[in-house]
Amino acid sequence: MKAFVLDRYGKKAALRPADMPMPTLRDDEVLVEVHAAGVNLLDAKIRDGEFKLILPYRLPLVLGHDVAGVVTRIGPRVRQFKPGDEVYARADDFRIGTFAEFVAVKEASLALKPQGLTMEEAASIPLVALTAWQALVEKAGLKKGQKVFIQAGSGGVGTFAIQLAKHLGATVATTTSAANAALVKSLGADVVIDYRTQDFEDVLSDCDVVLNSQDGKTLEKSLHVLKRGGKLISISGPPDPEFGKQSSAPGFVKLVMRLLSSGIRRRAKSRGVDFSFLFMRANGSQLREITRLFETGAIRPVVDRVFPFGSTNEALAYVETGRAKGKVVVKLK
């Protein structure tokens, strides 16, 4: 099968187009013919080697986390899916590889594709939607009437998280450029802060939840806009001890994680704020909940550009610019 392969870690290293063996199908997995694959900043970070201690992949590696496609075969223990089903998923860590013609996905991580969406739209959803769901629903328990600050509202996670928070009944503030203000307002943002001309610290106060996706300086400033008892959830680090417990990283790496987050955890505690790090995980049952939101029209996909499969490296480079409005997808079928 045709695939895009990472041979060695390196900043901006090009993925190599190659013919690879078909994935080995385990008993609890489904073989999916890939029609479209979402492109995420996580793919670039893995390529650059940023996660090699936390996610020690064997190289060569087929990258790609998001998939939409058609089931072609099922393992003997699979009960929920059959050949011909249109499905989508965020592939599990250590079983990624959606930049290819076929990928094997655990049954527990898979869901039927939302009706009414194209394959490209469906492929744009899993990783960012699950990230927002696990942050706002699972960790934050966001409730009607609460105030949430979602950073980088026009990005992949931001465009979904704004809609989800609004659906949950929260008041939503976000940062973006003036050029993207109309987009985030159309998604439900109540307060739109132009990060080029405004400081969110001057605009916001008494937030119940902050979803941080930016650098350490922004993370630190986020503490100041939260009320006591508020929750600061970061998807851009630093990893906390709880994540260390869940990861398969060596002991010394877990110690480093604890040390890296000790400062922000201490300062959060002194302000009566709860800090946590989120590294999202594949979850088919949550994806089915998310499917309903798309099928009822509560949330809509936001796709910036669709690249042909042969331009996967160009798609990855475009995601790295940080200028994409919503998601970037590569199309195979």
UniProtKB/TrEMBL annotation:
The keyword Magnesium does not apply. The keyword Oxidoreductase applies. It comes from the Bacteria. Keywords: Oxidoreductase. InterPro entries: ADH-like_N, ER, GroES-like_sf, NAD(P)-bd_dom_sf, YIM1/Zinc_Alcohol_DH_Fams. GO terms for molecular function: crotonyl-CoA reductase activity. Residues 10-330 form the Enoyl reductase (ER) domain. SMART domains: PKS_ER. Its EC number is 1.3.1.86. This is Crotonyl-CoA reductase.
